[in-house]
Amino acid sequence: MAQPGLGPDGGAATEAEAALGPGSLLWRYAGDWRSMLPGSATGVLQLMHPGIGAGVEQHSAFFDDPFDRIYRSIPQIWATIFAPDGERRGRQLRDVHRTIKGVDDSGRRYHALDPETFWWAHATFTWDVFRSVELFHSRPLRDAEAEQLYAETVTWYRRYGVSCRPVPRDYRAFTERFTEICRHTLELTPAATRALSYRLADVPGHPLGPDPVSTLLTPLVAPGAELLVVGCLPAEVRQRLDVTWGRAERAQFRGLCAGIRQVFRLVPGPVNRRTLRDVQRRVGARTRHRRYRPAA
Can you list the alpha helix ranges (DSSP code H) found in the chain? Predict the structure, then answer.
């Protein structure tokens, strides 16, 4: 475990760091299908960050086919946790972002590798894993487990080879910092505004598969998927977005979460983890030729 002081990159060291592997909590929870369920809310949290929102808007074709970008990105990001060469993959992902910089609509300069900006993108994935456990698992994390899981996400972050200066030293500090950013830094960027205006049926591309499959599934999936976006968001963000979230919406969301927990009681753990791993490998293989390449 790292000691307080300066980290090897000259940034502030964090006390939290733990090994990753088949027995780790991050492997258990990130390798579970339920870790995908807060994904749309995670994307909103990223797009609400001024630097990330501007970078996505100016340097990607996200709004031409949002799910294509998701299918290209998530297998790569999750591979930095599970792949034997996770550190190499993490540094490749970092290098992809070297040329993503510019000026946003408010005249503020941004760069994807600014430590605070890059850490926020990772912090939303850390939040995603914790949120999935909170909402969709039958047993909450004990305090010691939360600290261990957070420490493992710090190890995950170190695989990118980016300054650890913004990394909070423990889970309590992380939650405080995350809430502070939600309250004071996030904003309704043009990218976030556009993303939040979509309904699943209107999303460009093929979010649920080929046209016949998507046509069949969308009316069935859309109400729950759209409820998950808003319900999974932190309360502070819902308030900033002025989203209607009254008694009826809260009851519907609680019912949806309870239903998900009951369904996953019936799914054997090895099947759950193996199918997620296999799907990500297949999606990753199919999108490999469309991935961004690291800048020279």
Answer: 25-30, 39-47, 50-59, 66-82, 86-96, 115-136, 143-158, 171-184, 190-197, 211-232, 235-241, 247-265, 269-287
Listed in sequence order, the residues at least 6 apart from 207 whose beta carbon sits closer than 8 Å to its beta carbon are 66, 67, 200, 214
Domain coordinates in residue numbering, the chain: 25-290
φ, ψ (nearest 5 deg) of residue 6: -95, 140
Q: Are strands 109-111 and 101-103 parallel, antiparallel or unpaired?
A: antiparallel
Rounded to 5 degrees, what are φ and ψ at 107? 85, 10
Alpha-carbon separation of residue 94 from 52, 69, 76 (angstroms): 14, 16, 11
* Cα-based torsion angle of the residue sequence 124, 127, 128, 133 in order, rounded to the nearest 10 degrees: 180
Per residue in 96-150, pLDDT (tens digit) is 999 999 999 899 999 999 999 999 999 999 999 999 999 999 999 999 999 999 9
